Amino acid sequence: MRNPDTTAYGSGGALAGDVLGAYLRTQAVAFLRALRLHTEAAGSAPAGGAAAADAAEAARGLRGAARRIAGSLTTFRAVTDSAWADGLRGELAWLSSVLADEHTSAALPARLLDALHRLSGSPDRPGGAAGGGLAAGPLRAAALLERQLAPARARAHAAALQAMGSSRFHAVVDAVAVLASEVPLDPVAARGPVADVLVPLAAVPRARLEAAVAALPRPAQAPPYDAGQDGSWHEVRHLLRIHRYAREALGEDVARPAEAGGALARQGDAAEAAAASAAAARTPRIAPATAYALGVLHADQRHEAEAARRAFHRIWHPAPTPA
């Protein structure tokens, strides 16, 4: 990343503990508010419709707040009571993982079925055979995908319900409630200036992110789509998230990291969809029309992933402004 923004607190007299404490308290309040909204939405009747959408949005807020707190406790661990930070960070990582699994398991089938619907409405190709295959197979492909993905979706939903009803979850909520009013800090590091304490700590995830991005092939060098690189892209997405939260804590502008993160989210969703459609296409003894529809779906999602990767590079490596 070139020309990093100057930190908002770097030239002032703010203390590290004050700045970090304010950010963590804000995120703790956001977590508790999202939990209340989730509880209200989950208890609404009838299930589904607006209540389901509200519950999903509240769960998204829970994930976001949990990730921000956990990420900040990772980056700025030296400014906190380290034993407390390590314990809460681990529990929040567990919770955000459970919630993310539930979200992904529900979003993936919806994405695939929407893509099948879109593709099946495309004009037939000349010659009839390809277009006819696409017209005949989507319904069977959709049914196959639903059968294959429904068990994982049910397991993830059950795991989320079990987690949020557990004593472990309630202990996390209690810890976050305490955090909303009091942040356990290291008494020495917390009294240091932001520029001397928080800024150097925030530079660590930024450097890791820069190294991970530099290891990615540029669009001109990369093949159209390489699933073998999915792990590297996932790591960049994780590191960008940690970097973004560190910048948020410092009061910096995060518009560019947020835009880049959106491209990485689209890349990850498309890569997962491509993998799921490829797995479904390997099902033994499926009809040719079904296999064809899944092949078209797989190619479509590969193209979506490739486009998102190019978009990330355009955001992260903007073209020089003409003089």
UniProtKB/TrEMBL annotation:
Pfam families for the chain: CHAD
Origin: domain of life: Bacteria
Annotated signal peptide: none
Alphabetical list of InterPro entries matching this protein: CHAD_dom (IPR007899), CHAD_dom_sf (IPR038186)
CHAD domain sequence ranges: 24-321
Protein name as annotated: Metal-binding protein
Protein's organism: Streptomyces globosus
Lineage: Bacteria, Bacillati, Actinomycetota, Actinomycetes, Kitasatosporales
